[in-house]
Amino acid sequence: MTDSLAGRTIDAIWRIESARLIAGLARMVRDVGLAEDLAQDALVIALEKWPETGIPDNPGAWLMTTAKRRVIDLLRRNKLRDQKYEEMARGSELYTEDEVDRAVDGEVGDDLLRLIFTSCHPVLSRDARVALTLRLLGGLTTDEIARAFLVPESTVAQRIVRAKKTLSAERVGFEAPSGEALKGRLSAVLEVIYLMFNEGYSATSGGEWLRPTLCREALRLGRILAEIAPAESEVHGLVALMELQSSRFRTRVGANGEPILLMDQNRGLWDHLLIRRGLAALERARALGGPLGPYALQASISACHAQATVAASTDWVRIAALYEALSRVQPSAIVELNRAVAIAMAFGPAFGLQLVEELASEPALANYYLLPSVRGDLLVKLGRAAEAREQFELAAELTRNERERELLLKRAAECDLTELK
């Protein structure tokens, strides 16, 4: 095996196995930072040995065995001088490999659940949660995370280091909450995954409209969470939303990377496997009973689009009703703006524009580029091209995404052509 091929193979294996490896080690040493260091040590050994010996039949087990040996050495070395390990060793004179095996070889699902809740702990800032989750559960390097969010690598590295120190200083336990505590903590986990996916699906800044790496990692984490927390309706709701949104990827950008809006996309090219998976996940969320939460409601809206074989057959009345329901469980100006769009599509642009005008004074939308963008679109439909052009130009000034800006300026130019006719 050539060095380059071995390197790519090992990198792929690491992406698959790293989260389970770190999760298993963290359950034992009770420190995610230390667990990651031990896992990285095992990876370094693999990088040294595998190009010569070949990839083992079960690389995940090989990495775990190697890491466990490092744990045993570390625990023996530090047993008397480190209180953290004395607490683990209480009642035992000596660490044996059998004891380590019993500590590490538990339910993988339980370990991953603990790791997800630890990396998304509320004690951490939102940015830190996202960075640490991508690092520990996604296996991404700091450079990859930095490129995904268009921030300096040093910034990401500092976030991760500070996050680990904060978890240690605050003595955050490596455990998944239960009972009433679970609901609040679960919302923080889902928020991280949702933010990750949204930033990949519609990048807030930079020269690309899509950042597929973030979407893929968010969807992968959502699927893992759905497997290990199957009784949580909103987990399935978020997975459904991401599956359905992901089905449009190949039609969201043109040959040159330019954005293609939903109503202009070729629906025949949507990924129907992902649509089926999304609808199945949504059905699981509904089957658990109770009122739908914000993620399941958004997935229901996305399902309306997915089930419309052509844009003209979209059930906008139902979408408007779903946005109304969403505004009750998660009130926000952005939800109201989306509801206005749905009402415009269902009952005419004049009704939608009236609602949009009522939102103009909302502080949350003061610098939100989609407010003038939506207003411009409705004005075009009402034949008010000159006013629409001003709105598209304003939206272009407000957006930080270069592709979005190009699209908005193109729409403004089209308004000029409309006026000339």
TrEMBL record:
<dbReference type="InterPro" id="IPR046531">
    <property type="entry name" value="DUF6596"/>
</dbReference>
<dbReference type="Pfam" id="PF08281">
    <property type="entry name" value="Sigma70_r4_2"/>
</dbReference>
<feature type="domain" description="RNA polymerase sigma-70 region 2">
    <location>
        <begin position="21"/>
        <end position="79"/>
    </location>
</feature>
<dbReference type="InterPro" id="IPR036388">
    <property type="entry name" value="WH-like_DNA-bd_sf"/>
</dbReference>
<feature type="domain" description="DUF6596">
    <location>
        <begin position="185"/>
        <end position="285"/>
    </location>
</feature>
<protein>
    <submittedName>
        <fullName>RNA polymerase sigma factor (Sigma-70 family)</fullName>
    </submittedName>
</protein>
<dbReference type="InterPro" id="IPR013325">
    <property type="entry name" value="RNA_pol_sigma_r2"/>
</dbReference>
<dbReference type="InterPro" id="IPR013249">
    <property type="entry name" value="RNA_pol_sigma70_r4_t2"/>
</dbReference>
<dbReference type="Pfam" id="PF20239">
    <property type="entry name" value="DUF6596"/>
</dbReference>
<dbReference type="InterPro" id="IPR007627">
    <property type="entry name" value="RNA_pol_sigma70_r2"/>
</dbReference>
<feature type="domain" description="RNA polymerase sigma factor 70 region 4 type 2">
    <location>
        <begin position="116"/>
        <end position="167"/>
    </location>
</feature>
<dbReference type="Pfam" id="PF04542">
    <property type="entry name" value="Sigma70_r2"/>
</dbReference>
<dbReference type="InterPro" id="IPR014284">
    <property type="entry name" value="RNA_pol_sigma-70_dom"/>
</dbReference>
<dbReference type="InterPro" id="IPR013324">
    <property type="entry name" value="RNA_pol_sigma_r3/r4-like"/>
</dbReference>
